[in-house]
Design brief:
The complex is a heterodimer of chains A (237) and B (213). With 237 residues, chain A is mainly alpha-helical. In chain A, 43% of the residues lie in helices and 9% in strands. Chain A has helices at residues 5-15, 22-26, 45-58, 64-76, 80-92, 94-102, 104-110, 144-147, 152-155, 157-162, 167-173, 210-214, 219-223; strands at 121-125, 130-135, 183-188, 194-198. Chain A has a two-stranded parallel ribbon. In chain A, strands 2-3 form a two-stranded parallel ribbon. In chain A, 43% of the residues are buried. Chain B has two domains: 28-111, Orthogonal Bundle (Cyclin A, domain 1), CATH 1.10.472; 131-212, SH3 type barrels. Chain B has a five-stranded antiparallel sheet with strand order 4-3-2-1-5. The chains are: A mainly alpha (237), B alpha+beta (213).
Chain lengths: 237, 213
């Protein structure tokens, strides 16, 4: 019986003298008559998920209709159009913008958006002198109620690793060249706060109504990897 | 844990791959595992189980593959499911149960706001504007102290208030509520004089991560 990687990690925790729960220290020391290192996902994840869901439904750990409703909500209701409405409101209503920058979650909730991963919100404002960029280097934390679930690139190693050490190089890959003298602020979401960038209102948007402005606001502009430009004719933002 | 997940500052991860008009889920199973994770009443060490996926596997897997792996291991570790059940697909009695989220509860749960900020009379150890150093800590358990900040000097920009300390709370130990600050690190402090003098990184840090500088 070789030591599994999990046993090794557990031993490291114990040897370090760290205070650990019985769960962490002993959960993997209980039964060594079978190999139980991490499965290396040889099989199709679709099949594994299907099997796991069936098992959990049968055990009363999840309810299938509840799962359907959750998928539907994140596919159709919770997404960057919510954040776009927040941004547009801030552009047309200076008092709202002030509330948004002071207490992000409360101001966002005024428009009806709240929920998991949005309980504590910091809204950071782009100006001609400062540009903001959001990341979660350790995981993939993201403000769900206003942006939905993050795109693959946001969760990817190239973004998470380089955005703190070479943010300007990374922005150039997005097609955004920042002037040298603009302060670039990268926000690493390491704790309970989630970040939303309030982009600059673009030239050419003067006189537009709030709902028309919202159509100009892109997801990427609220992460900080793009600026907002006037949408091309007939092309949705 | 100084694991592969703590990748801030690495440079060899390849170019960014950007997909235009990306769907929320790329396959139905991605939505299903997300919903299972969202709905299941599980203990708070999910991220630890994601972080200890072997490095080569972590990099190979997609986000939702890691979610499947970490959630499975989490539930196994806490006795919510067993290896035998996974193999046979047949439930065995006497496993741990959480609270079942029903369809009727979903709409309220989707918009429920339960701020994790704690209203406790705990004094901050640092003041806004103060210079601080991120401590050189290397726990082998879950931590939110990124490696690239350790030993570096920053400035307290804002006091976010009191929050449970994830390093211990995620292990179901003492929650150690304490202040969390937004700490500003100049890019040159983190990466040397080649970095832009105009750039900085803001990192949210608990009191226990910081010392006077």
């Amino acid at each position: 019986m070789t030591t599994t990687r999990r046993d090794f990690l557990t031993a490291a925790v114990t040897a370090a003298g760290a205070a650990v729960t019985p769960d962490l220290a002993h959960a993997h020391g209980h039964d060594h008559d079978h190999e139980h290192d991490h499965q290396v996902v040889p099989s199709d994840p679709a099949l594994r998920v299907k099997a796991l869901e069936s098992l959990m439904v049968e055990k009363g750990l999840v309810d299938r209709a509840a799962l359907d409703a959750i998928v539907d909500a994140y596919e159709h209701k919770i997404g960057p159009r919510n954040g776009a409405r927040v941004v547009a409101r801030a552009w047309v209503d200076p008092a709202y913008k002030q509330r948004l920058l002071t207490n992000g979650a409360a101001a966002i909730a005024e428009l009806g958006y709240s929920g998991p991963e949005g309980e504590q919100m910091m809204v950071v404002e782009n100006t001609p002198k400062a540009h903001n960029l959001v990341v979660c280097t350790l995981c993939s934390c993201y403000p769900w109620p206003v942006l939905g679930l993050p795109p693959v690139w946001y969760k990817s190693a190239p973004y998470r690793s380089r955005v703190v050490i070479d943010p300007r190089g990374l922005l150039r890959e997005f097609g955004l060249q920042l002037p040298d003298d603009v302060e670039l602020r990268v926000w690493d979401s390491t704790a309970d706060l989630r970040y939303l960038v309030l982009p600059e209102r673009p030239a050419g948007s003067e006189g537009l109504k709030e709902e028309d402005l919202a159509a100009w606001v892109t997801r990427d502009s609220m992460i900080g990897t793009a600026k907002i430009v006037k949408p091309a004719e007939g092309v949705p933002a | 844990m100084n694991g592969i997940h703590d990748m801030g500052g690495m440079q060899d991860m390849g170019p960014l791959e950007y997909e235009k008009n990306e769907p929320m889920f790329h396959a139905p199973w991605e939505g299903r595992i997300f919903a299972i994770w969202w709905a299941a009443d599980t203990p708070p060490d999910y991220r630890y189980h994601a972080e200890i996926i072997p490095p080569a596997e972590y990099l190979r897997m997609s986000y939702y593959e890691r979610m499947l792996e970490a959630l499975t291991e989490l539930m196994l570790a806490h006795g919510m499911i067993t290896r035998a059940e996974l193999v046979t697909g047949k439930p065995v009695p006497d496993t741990q149960k959480g609270e079942l989220l029903t369809l009727a509860q979903v709409p309220a749960e989707l918009i429920k706001s339960e701020p994790s900020i704690r209203k406790l009379p705990i004094a901050p150890r640092f003041q806004t504007g103060q210079r601080v150093r991120a401590r050189n800590l290397n726990p082998v358990t879950h931590t939110r102290l990124p490696r690239y900040t350790r030993g570096k000097i920053g400035r307290i920009e804002r006091d976010h208030g009191v929050y449970d300390f994830e390093d211990t709370a995620s292990q179901q130990l003492d929650k150690k509520p304490q202040h969390v600050y937004s700490v500003r690190f100049a890019a040159r402090e983190l990466w040397g004089q080649e970095a832009s003098q105009h750039d900085c990184v803001y990192v949210d840090m608990w009191d226990d991560y910081l010392e006077r500088a």
